[in-house]
Protein: Glutathione S-transferase omega
Amino acid sequence: MAGPTKSLAKGSPAPGPVPDGVIRAYIMRFCPFAQRAHLILVAKGIKHELVYINTLNKPDWFFEKSPFGQVPAIETSKGQLIYESQIVCDYLDEVFPGKKLTPQDPFQKAQQKMLLEHFSKASTVAFKIVGAKKNNEDISALKAEFLEKLVQFDQVVAKLNTPYVGGSSVSMADYMILPIFERFDIFGVKDCLEKTPHLLQWYQLMLQDPAVKATHIKPEALEGFFKLYLQGNPESVDYDI
Structure:
């Protein structure tokens, strides 16, 4: 499988039509929300092509694909466009054959949504930490808040008594949460996992998943990207290419 290509930035021409039978995904390599879509594409075996977008110096035409200028966005050969990570992932799961990653039972589906809502309390703080780091601010109070929210989520997961957050096998909820965990190190909160044994066990299990392995970014690449990103360097998105 070919490696990533340089990101398309302002002034870059738009790619041509999407080939028949292919989903085109507009992503940024290091974006956790874009990784969500990439995970689902791989997990379901969907034929796809990746177009990398420089999210710090976006081409003008990209706003025609994604009105908010955010990744991920996907495009079909019919020119249909879907954006926002959860909407993209739900669409891919509903439209394409293979194992359904979202429960069909309404109560189980609601449970997964509630679990994601629980996790969002922690992930919201994680992104506040990123903002604080960018402004060279002290993160100790935010880190304490993050740990509190993560411990609460760990307690929720413990009560499930299942190997995966979504149940007995990997599901949509697991793939939605995983990309944030992969970035705990660069956020400066990886040591918080020492206080959340159930989430640590889950994370170690998820690292063995084939789709996770296929979309995994080496820690040193993430670290290199993040250092440049904090400086506002638009070249950060193409770190190590």
The mean pLDDT is 96. The longest strand covers residues 23-27. The radius of gyration is 18 Å. The chain has two domains: 23-99+219-238, 106-208.
